[in-house]
Amino acid sequence: MPLAMPKPQMLLSLRYTSVVSLFGLLFALNSCKHCLGLRKDGTVASALIDTSSTTDGQCDVDTWQNIVAISAGDFHSVGLRANGTVVAVGDNSSGQCNVSRWKNISAISSRGNLTVGLTREGKVIISSKDHPEGFFLSSIKNAVAISVGVGHLLVLHADGTVSATGADEFDQCKVSTWKDIVAVSAGDRYSIGVKSDGTLISTGTNESGERDLYKKIVGPYSPQLARQLREADAQSAAWKAAGLCPSCGGKISWISKRCKTCKRYVT
Predict the structure, then answer these.
(1) What is the C-alpha separation between 27 and 39, in angstroms, rounded?
(2) For the stretch 130-156, what's the b/e string if a residue is b when 16 or more beta carbons lie within 10 angstroms of its beta carbon?
(3) Which one of 22, 23, 141, 191 is most buried, counting C-beta atoms within 10 A?
(4) Does residue 159 form part of some domain?
(5) How many independent structural domains does the chain possess?
(6) DSSP letter string over 187-245?
(7) Quick check: is 13 in a domain?
(8) Is 40 contained in some domain?
């Protein structure tokens, strides 16, 4: 059964590390609809962020075992097993849960109705029958990390460079000049890169203050820094879902789509 989570407003007021400590999780992440947590024993916890919303089975993760990585789409959940296979539950209307035949996977990333996998050979595969136009995967080689946003995909290569494919209307794919990168994170319409010295580079929209969340993350790259990246991405999505501005935490007017405090437009 899914965990009994605090009310959305209470959950948003908790630090990411507090949520992890509260439920004994290795780390947690959320989409705008539900939250997943990976325990140290390789099992997974889940909870609906909005308990009044309908469920497509995205929280049916109680039987998962030997999980080493998790990812959450809007209405589906994905887990990477230690043996390189993948499991997924929830909405499968676009084929986003058709991952049972995947093998030798080293990383997963999901967003919306997409599930993306990275093979141990450095190739990228995708599970969705209607993935966004402009996703060119055949030319991707020597990939070591992936992150999928809303309409675009970031790929980190072994030499520290980054490539991107998909929608680029906000310049979120303008990453060809990035070098010495050790981690990437794709947001709704923006992209974040972490250099080996701990400094950040970003591109894409910042009209809702999305990229500002990452400016507080400093220091040399470490698992803790990677966790903070996931926290910032999850926090941005959760705040928007609760009607709060990711930049300042102020309330968003649902009529004007503008923050009442900092006056930013929130998309």
Answers:
(1) 7
(2) ebbeebeeeebeebbbbbbbbbbbbbb
(3) 191
(4) no
(5) 1
(6) -SSEEEEEETTS-EEEEE--TTSTGGGGGG--SS--HHHHHHHHHHHHHHHHHHHTTB-
(7) yes
(8) yes
In this prediction the pTM is 0.71
> Quick one: pLDDT at residue 162?
95
C-alpha–C-alpha distance, residues 248 and 128, integer Å: 35
- Residues forming a β-bridge with 190: 204
Residue 16 has pLDDT above 50, yes or no: no
Alpha carbon distances (Å) from 34 to 2, 54, 107, 210: 10, 11, 21, 20
Give the count of beta carbons closer than 10 Å to the beta carbon of residue 35. 25
> Measuring CA to CA, which residue among 173, 152, 176, 151 is closest to residue 162?
176
- With 0-12 / 13-18 / 19 or more C-beta atoms within 10 angstroms meaning exposed / middle / buried, residue 62 is exposed
- Closest by alpha carbon to 249, among 241, 237, 259? 259
CATH number of the domain within which 114 lies: 2.130.10.30
Contact in structure between 187 and 175 (CB atoms under 8 Å): no
State the pLDDT confidence band at 31, using cuts at 50, 70 and 90: low
Helices 223-241, 16-23: inter-axial angle, 10-degree rounding: 100
Which residues are registered as beta bridge partners of 183?
194
Q: Are 174 and 210 in contact (CB under 8 A)?
A: no
- Whether the pLDDT of residue 147 is over 50: the answer is yes
The span from the CA of 181 to the CA of 197, in Å, is 9
Could you give the CA distance from residue 250 to residue 123 in angstroms, rounded to a whole number? 41
